[in-house]
Every structure is written in structure tokens, then in C-alpha cells.
Amino acid sequence: MANDSNKFQAIISHCKEYGFIFPSSEIYDGLQAVYDYGQMGSELKKNIKDYWWKSMTQLQDNIVGIDAAIFMHPTVWKASGHIDNFNDPMIDNKDSNKRYRVDHLIEGFAEEQSAMGNEQLANDVLATMEVMLAKDDFAGLKKLIEDNNIKCAISGTRNWSDIRQFNLMFSTQIGSVAGEEENSIVYLRPETAQGIFVNFLNVQKTGRMKIPFGIAQTGKAFRNEIVARQFIFRMREFEQMEMQFFVRPGTEGEWYQYWKKTRLEWHLSLGFDPAKFRYHDHLKLAHYAKEACDIEFEFPIGFKEVEGIHSRTDFDLKQHQEFSKKKLQYFDNDIDPVTGKPFGNYIPYVVETSIGLDRMFLLVMSSAYEEQDLGTAERADSRVVLKLPNQLAPVKLAILPLVKKDGLPEIAKKIMDDCRSSFRCFYEEKDTIGKRYRRMDAIGTPFCVTVDQQTKEDNTVTIRHRDSMEQERVGIEKIKEIVQASL
Ligand code: GAP
Prior knowledge:
This protein is of the alpha+beta class.
């Protein structure tokens, strides 16, 4: 069994070996922090996205979805504060020229200390860092790095530059020749949220939405992460699933608590171990936030953020109203019990839920991946199984004729034709049945049916359950029902 420190590497290798994730442009040695999803990975990713989309739109009375463009008017990013504030403090090692995000450098040191048993020091350093980051105290942070003798992993020296802010947005030119005019610069969106804010009134009016209501969206976002590492945990091109919930001013505190609880319940609804989740309330708030917390998951690399819940006040709509000179207000004709009159016109407050699809993918993989020793006194045996929630599994049912003759493939193909329009099936007749089961375990297929000689006599097959490896004999007509009931 892989332990936690090498489980992460095992998951990365497994993702590549079974067609889940490949490094981007691998034949050219890859592009750092950019990844491609393969034939299994794209199915799993789509299933995660669909699960989120359904629970955040279809199963809600008052949340609708949109799909805004990646490119937006450049003023959007001025108004949103991203041009001025979407920065990370960085420090350079002057000997190796390697640039580090300050928080990552200090966190790396704390992790090392903790692994060496110096838990107290690790906690103290992290607590001091949080306070200093919250105050943008760069001199204090540099001193913290120096006082703790934190070295560059490449040069091994402590020859550090001053700490400076770096903007994380990618830019490009639109229309005209690159570099010609300043106003031709457009940004690749660093969050999908702004596409929702600028469409707030379009959706509210055309959908006749009544506050409180939400707008959801999934899509690509781009950040020039300086320290891009840890596989798909931190990417330069990634996908977000965000929802902005518009509420009456003064009610944002309750809604923030509501979404904090509801989003954690969503994660647990997939059957993951509750002990692997925790909240992390932010001390350092993003430039738009009044309250914020992360839902953290215990990845093999430790507890890390998977989703953020942010109380964004009326910051974004107010800014867009000011920069666009277009009114972004809502007329609330509900009666205010205090004044006895309608609440009237206001800019709504916003509570946001924002989850990274790729990070959720990694969560699902980390939780599902298991190496099992199945050996007995007589025989060594093992398997790698992905215990994926059935709703998310790329393939739901494998259909396997025991042998490639005697009419068994024909029966198996008929089962395949009967089931494939209801859920994703996979047909295979090559190799021993044991090897075929192992391959299905490795991609997380919850059910395998085997067609054998008895099938010809009584129209039954064996259905094998991935997690327990138990097999039962069922009528062919029952297969679809069994699989569908588990989704
Ligand atoms: N609209 C708010 C927002 O973007 P965020 O905390 O910066 O907030 C939200 O990002 C989520 O997006 C994170 O919780 C994480 O899951 C995901 N995310 C952010 N940066 C990422 C990156 N570089 N690679 C992969 N996922 C990322």
C-alpha cells in the first residue's frame, strides 16, 4: 500500500497510465502546469461538472446558469480590481534566480519542520505568516524567512530579494497588431465570476428573477501562477464552477452561513469521508470580500483548499455600475416590516461559491485511489481500484464475454446495444477475465457483467461489484435496472 507521501506520485502515474490526465504537449516535453484530460479523464471531469450543474441549477428553485465568454471588455478587470489587486507577493533567490510565492516558501518550510516533529515551530511560523500577509507586511515576511533560515531549494542559499507583488492575469491583444495600442489589450479571465456580474441585469430581467436568486457558470479561467506545482492542484489554465447568489443587503450574513453549510453537504453527498474535510476561515481577505472561508480537503499532500465561499458585498456590481455608468440595481417590491414600505431600489449583495473543477477531480481521485493486497498464503495478488462514486465513474458497466466464441460475443453485444443509450458501457473480449476485471477496477467501473456458457441456457449473467468483488447471478433483463438504481 502506498503511504501518503508517495500516494500522490502513484495517483499521477495512474492518471497517465489509464488515460485520465496527460502533461500538455508531452511530445515537446510538456508545458509547466498545463494538463490535458484523456479519454477517461474527460468523462470523469464531465460527470463531476454535470453533478455540480444539476445540484446548483436544476435542483434549485432560484438559480439559473449562463455561459459567458472568456474574453471580456478590459474595463471589467479595472472595475473588478483585478488589474490593481490580483497579485501574489513573490520573492526571488538571487543566486538561482528562482522566484517563489512567499506563502508557498514559508508553507514548505513549515511542512518540513512538521515532518521533523517540530510541530510547534511549524504552527507558529504559519500563524505569524497569516497575520503578516493580512497586513501586507512584506518587510516582516522577509524577516520571517531570514530569521528561520529558509533556503532556496535550488541554490541552497539565503540570498533573497525584497518581496514584491506580481499580477497573475494573462493578457493578449485583440483585433489589431500585437503591441500596437494599449486599448487593444484583453485579459484571459482569472475567474468566471465577472461574466456573471456583467450579465446580472440581463438575466434578472429576461428570467424575471426575484431576489434572492443565483446565477451559476462553469468555464475556463487562467492565472499566471509563478509557482505552478502539485499536478492539477495549481494550474495556469483551469476550470471553475461558480455561483453568485444575489441577496437583499443586510441578509448576506445568513446566506453566507447557508452556502457554507450547503456546499460542504454537497461534497459529503458524494459519500466522501467527512473527517477529510474542514473549513478554513480567512484572515486575509481578497480585495472584494467581507467574509470568506475555504472548504479544505485532506489530499495526500495535506489539507488544501478545494472550494471558496465568499461574501462579496455589493463590491462588484457597484464597481461595474460606476465604471460602465449603467444602473445595476434591483427594485424590491417586498414590504419592509420596519418601514411598512417596499424595500425599493438597491444594489444587491452577493454570496459566492467557487470551486475548481480540476481540484475537485484531484479530490475525487485522492479519495477513490486504493492499492489492495489480495494475496493469500498460497498466492500473491494485488489490485489498484478506483472507488469512484458511481455517478462519477467514466464507465458504468463493462460487458465481458468469457470466451470469444460459442455465440457469447453476440449475446454480450446485444446487452451492450440495450444499455449504451442509458449509460456509458465498455465491451471487451481480449485477455483472461481476471485481467479484464483488474483493468475495470483501475478505471473505477462499478459493474462488470460476464456472459458465459450458462447464459445460453438460462439467460443469466454474473454481475461483479467493483468494491466488494462479489459476484451474483442475475437475469439479463435486470442488468440495466441494477446499474441505473446505483446512479
Ligand atoms: N471567484 C472567486 C475565486 O476565483 P479563488 O479562491 O481564487 O476564488 C476559487 O478560486 C477556486 O478555484 C479555488 O478554491 C480552487 O479550487 C480553484 N483554483 C484557483 N486557482 C487555481 C489554480 N491555479 N489551479 C487550479 N484550481 C484553481
